[in-house]
Amino acid sequence: GIQVEQSPPDLILQEGANSTLRCNFSDSVNNLQWFHQNPWGQLINLFYIPSGTKQNGRLSATTVATERYSLLYISSSQTTDSGVYFCAVSSNDYKLSFGAGTTVTVRA
Amino acid sequence: DVKVTQSSRYLVKRTGEKVFLECVQDMDHENMFWYRQDPGLGLRLIYFSYDVKMKEKGDIPEGYSVSREKKERFSLILESASTNQTSMYLCASSLDFRTGDEKLFFGSGTQLSVL
After folding, report:
1. Which residues of chain B neighbour A40 with C-beta distances below 8 Å?
2. Chain B residues touching residue A35 (CB < 8 angstroms)
3. B109/A42 Cβ within 8 A
4. Distance of CA B84 to CAs A6, B63, B89, B110, Å?
5. Is B63 on the interface with A (CB under 8 A)?
6. Which of A42, A44, A93 sits opposite B102 (nearest CB)?
7. How confident is the model over A21-77, as pLDDT tens digits?
8. Inter-residue contact B28 to B71 (CB < 8 Å)
9. A41 with B50: Cβ contact below 8 A
10. Who's near A63: CB < 8 A, 6+ residues apart?
11. I need a labelling partner for B62 at 20 to 30 A (CA). Which of A62, A63, A106, B95 fits?
12. Which residues of A fall within a CB distance of 8 Å from B42?
């Protein structure tokens, strides 16, 4: 299966700081999604982004499919951004492989 | 917004019991999935279904079965629960591969403890 590596594994931010999370994958994909798991365990879909760039408020994501990586940008971080961010990819439309996640802690 | 509802937030069962985990989605999604999440192992796909009465094995189907009799409902069945099935179980759904809209939406999870 496709290997998914996320970096860094842990990130501690001061409120208001910006950050970049990275997702590398081992093969070509036609499906890439970013999720945020809040401290209560709920997984929220942030982006469906197999290629290109998207923005949603303070979050944006870029996928460079030809180079097999995706980046998630968090700007002006808030304490509510804390949690685990997962990247998930697939090459066959339905069987997503998840990375191990980046744990983000935003301190007030 | 899509709503994926799992019947229980916490569940405690005994070894050998038959366990049913229920999941319902309200957005007419074609595809439904069951994952389990374990510390250090991440999210792993157990089974998925792309249509009523259709199912396919994921990465770790052993010890589990599924049922999809209606489009909105996808059940995960542990025929004889074992302690190594203690985990967080997450149900998810997505619209349809053919539309190109494949965003995955998750329920809030069921933390199952098998004693």
Report:
1. 108
2. 104, 106
3. yes
4. 27, 10, 13, 15
5. no
6. A93
7. 999 999 999 899 999 999 989 999 999 999 999 999 999 999 999 999 999 999 999
8. yes
9. no
10. A32, A49, A50, A51, A52, A53, A69, A70, A71
11. B95
12. 86, 98-101
Compare CB distances from A41 to B94, B101, B108 and report the shortest one's residue: B108
Residue-wise pLDDT for B38-67, tens only, equals: 998 889 999 999 889 889 999 999 999 999
**Residue B89: which residues within 8 A CB-CB, separation 6 or more?**
B6, B21, B34, B35, B36, B37, B76, B109, B110, B111, B112
Q: Which two tokens stand for residue B88?
A: 């967080």
Count the neighbouring beta carbons within 10 Å of the beta carbon of residue A71: 17
The per-residue pLDDT for range B61-82, each reduced to its tens digit, is: 999 999 999 999 999 999 999 9
Tokens 């090459």 correspond to what residue? A91
Half-sphere exposure of A105 (CA within 13 A, CB side): 5
